[in-house]
From TrEMBL:
Lineage: Bacteria, Bacillati, Actinomycetota, Actinomycetes, Micromonosporales
Protein name: LPPG:FO 2-phospho-L-lactate transferase
Annotated source species: Plantactinospora soyae
Catalytic EC class: transferase
Cited NCBIfam families: F420_cofD (TIGR01819)
Keyword Glycosyltransferase: no
């Protein structure tokens, strides 16, 4: 049995620990197709937050509390960069984390595609699932905002696009926000292995990741959404929204920008049923949202709190039953 998971960072990484445990019980192979829209080039380094969150979490090296970056991290490089006044100072690169970005950046500079670099990094972390970036091409989520920048602008209401990391980490998503743009998506191609994995999948799971800035940029790569829709594998989504709120992160802000209600039914409707131009066959919601309806979809309720690996594996088993 082959399971493909479309995933973002922290929520997706948690989910994948459960998928890996379930796969171990039933002898399945798992491929995760990971968002790259959060990726950013800073201080000459290529940083891939979602790939790293998944790799560190599955490899046992993540800071569980913070959710991103390495456990046991120190911040000397960050302090030294700040001493030079090197911008941006609002983005924290940990010393251990920097080693990952150095290896990645030098391999990319030598001409290896991101998928091959990810495989090389995973040789150390042994995540137990195959990690594929959605694309090897440059694809970045930018956010069209207005409001004060540095306070000196003559036209404070003018719209401008900033990188997703600046929107989230620097401004905490609090600027007037108009839309998300996946820069480079039109020209991007699915990374090596992605279309084959989807074609050979027995089941496709949409992790309970942020639908707007984690899953949508994956689907924006031409060919991926089409492969999901045309594929024979059932596509089952797991709601990231429980009782009208994201468990953590910025999904509420992102959904508001799209005018989509921050509810399990709202996100299910955003993905939509495959029978009516969407991508889903079934939608799993939390027991707090039992009774949620999405026209055209089989909706089932089960506990969706990913409190530990066992609870998450049970949740995955329920999702697999929907297939
Ligand atoms: P990011 O890329 O680091 O933002 O992580 P993801 O996009 O993969 O996941 C973020 C989403 O995970 C958020 O919208 C949360 O609502 C969701 N999430 C986090 N923990 C849980 C949980 O225990 N259960 C469910 N159902 N969703 C969760
Ligand atoms: N999130 C923060 O809130 N502040 C940071 O300084 C920060 C640095 C950082 C460095 C590497 C990395 O892989 C992730 C990092 N994150 C940081 C998390 C990241 O901004 C977002 O949570 C994700 O991109 C959302 O998926
Ligand atoms: Ca993300």
């Amino acid at each position: 049995m082959r399971i493909v998971v479309l995933t973002g960072g922290i929520g997706g990484a948690r989910f994948l620990t459960g998928v890996r445990a379930y796969a171990g019980q039933v002898g399945a192979e798992v491929t995760a197709v990971v968002n790259v829209g959060d990726d950013v080039l800073l201080h000459g380094l290529k940083i891939c937050p979602d790939l790293d969150s998944v790799m560190y979490t599955l490899g046992g090296g993540a800071d569980r509390e913070r959710g991103w970056g390495r456990a046991g991290e120190t911040w000397t490089v960050k302090e030294e960069l700040a001493a030079y006044g090197a911008e941006p100072t609002w983005f924290g690169l940990g010393d251990r984390d920097v080693a990952t970005h150095l290896v990645r950046s030098s391999m990319l500079g030598a001409g290896y595609p991101l998928s091959a670099v990810t495989e090389a990094l995973c040789a150390r972390w042994q995540p137990g699932v195959r990690l594929l970036p959605a694309t090897d091409d440059r694809l970045e989520t930018h956010v069209v905002v207005s409001g004060p920048d540095d306070g000196t602008t003559d036209a404070p209401d003018a719209q401008r696009a900033i990188h997703f990391q600046e929107w989230w980490v620097r401004h905490r998503g609090a600027l007037p926000t108009h839309r998300f743009v996946f820069v480079g998506a039109e020209a991007a191609k699915p990374a090596a292995g992605v279309l084959d994995a989807l074609a050979e999948a027995d089941v496709v799971l949409l992790a309970p990741s942020n639908p707007v800035v984690s899953v949508a940029p994956i689907l924006a790569v031409p060919g991926i959404r089409e492969a999901l829709v045309a594929g024979t594998a059932p596509v089952i989504g797991i709601s990231p929204i429980i009782g009208g709120a994201p468990v953590r992160g910025m999904a509420d802000r992102c959904l508001a920008v799209l005018g989509v209600p921050c509810t399990a039914a709202g996100v299910g409707g955003l993905y939509g049923p495959r029978s009516a131009g969407g991508i889903l066959d079934s939608w799993l919601v939390d027991t707090a949202d039992a009774g949620a309806e999405v026209p055209g979809l089989t909706v089932r309720a089960a506990p969706l709190w990913m409190t530990d690996e066992a609870a998450t594996a049970t949740m995955v088993r329920t999702a697999m039953e929907l297939a």
